[in-house]
Amino acid sequence: MSNTAWETLSNQAIATAGIVYFLALVVYLAEWAALRQPAAERELVGAGGAADEAGEPGEPGGAPARADRVAFLGRLGLLLTAIACAAHLVGLVGRGMAADPNRVPWGNMYEFTLSGTFVVALLYLVLYKRFGLGWMGPLVVGFVVATLMVAVIWLYDAVAPLTEALNSPWLVIHVISAVIATGAFTLGGIASIVYLVRMRAERRAEAAGRALGGWLARVPQLDALDRLAYRVHAFAFPVWTFAVLITGPIWAHEAWSRYWNWDPKEVWAFITWVVYAGYLHARATAGWKGRKAALLALVGLGTLWFNFIGINYFSTTSQHSYAVERVVDAPAGTVAEQPSWRPLR
């Protein structure tokens, strides 16, 4: 296949992944809607009647039939997510094969965004059974769909050779660790957000003298959510440390003869590291759990994603904002590719 064919395949695969992710999101939302208890059934339960005998209007079996429908929609959503993730992988591989010479698909902001969202979806699928993450499906897929839309609409760049500073084995080592940590931190952040939402819903339900219902009833208990967030963050932090404080400085020294340049990306990556270090330290020494830990985790998530995307829009000095600018050589009538330090768009 030619480079153009590989690039076309990549674009088509990413478009397909986006469509299938969206279908998975619709199915997951239908699953959430099916978890809502019908009003007639709630009245019977409140009056002491058996929910299973209530029956929904026009549907025999009531709660059992609804449970079967919820289970089917959950399995269908998971299947669609797996199919979309496979198409996502094809898009990444095609992107790397479209370059001449072939390379890893991490040469610009668009490609890094594709990789980051792929890791989020992949980690969700890998951890799905171990941690019972069925409740997280619409949140993860919704995040992936929204981020892919941003990447395709605003961050897209045509395939181009790597700039000299990026053409290094450290690209693979540094970026893959940063991508894995970013995906894991994002999952941990989602768990922290759901923790705060469930905690507030429980307080309202308790004040109203009713049980927690709807999709939140399916979400794990607060202590389980808190434990899940901690475990995911504890996994991601050493990976981020390896990316930011070990491989990053080594690569910087190789490319720019300095281990630390006070580049905006470097500074914000270190700020993110400090916030997450504070999160884990507070949990281990001060006994921070629950709401305090969740809020601190969200601060870390905010600094992470600002560093990931925001720096490229608000900074004009970052040496991490690589791009390739095409310049026409008028006398020869040829097109040459030259490195540029403008922010990626």
TrEMBL record:
<dbReference type="Pfam" id="PF01578">
    <property type="entry name" value="Cytochrom_C_asm"/>
</dbReference>
<keyword id="KW-0201">Cytochrome c-type biogenesis</keyword>
<dbReference type="InterPro" id="IPR002541">
    <property type="entry name" value="Cyt_c_assembly"/>
</dbReference>
<feature type="transmembrane region" description="Helical">
    <location>
        <begin position="135"/>
        <end position="156"/>
    </location>
</feature>
<feature type="transmembrane region" description="Helical">
    <location>
        <begin position="76"/>
        <end position="97"/>
    </location>
</feature>
<feature type="transmembrane region" description="Helical">
    <location>
        <begin position="12"/>
        <end position="30"/>
    </location>
</feature>
<feature type="transmembrane region" description="Helical">
    <location>
        <begin position="228"/>
        <end position="252"/>
    </location>
</feature>
<feature type="transmembrane region" description="Helical">
    <location>
        <begin position="171"/>
        <end position="197"/>
    </location>
</feature>
<keyword id="KW-0812">Transmembrane</keyword>
<dbReference type="InterPro" id="IPR017562">
    <property type="entry name" value="Cyt_c_biogenesis_CcsA"/>
</dbReference>
<feature type="transmembrane region" description="Helical">
    <location>
        <begin position="267"/>
        <end position="286"/>
    </location>
</feature>
<dbReference type="InterPro" id="IPR045062">
    <property type="entry name" value="Cyt_c_biogenesis_CcsA/CcmC"/>
</dbReference>
<keyword id="KW-1133">Transmembrane helix</keyword>
<feature type="domain" description="Cytochrome c assembly protein">
    <location>
        <begin position="106"/>
        <end position="315"/>
    </location>
</feature>
<feature type="transmembrane region" description="Helical">
    <location>
        <begin position="109"/>
        <end position="128"/>
    </location>
</feature>
<protein>
    <submittedName>
        <fullName>C-type cytochrome biogenesis protein CcsB</fullName>
    </submittedName>
</protein>
<feature type="transmembrane region" description="Helical">
    <location>
        <begin position="293"/>
        <end position="314"/>
    </location>
</feature>
<keyword id="KW-0472">Membrane</keyword>
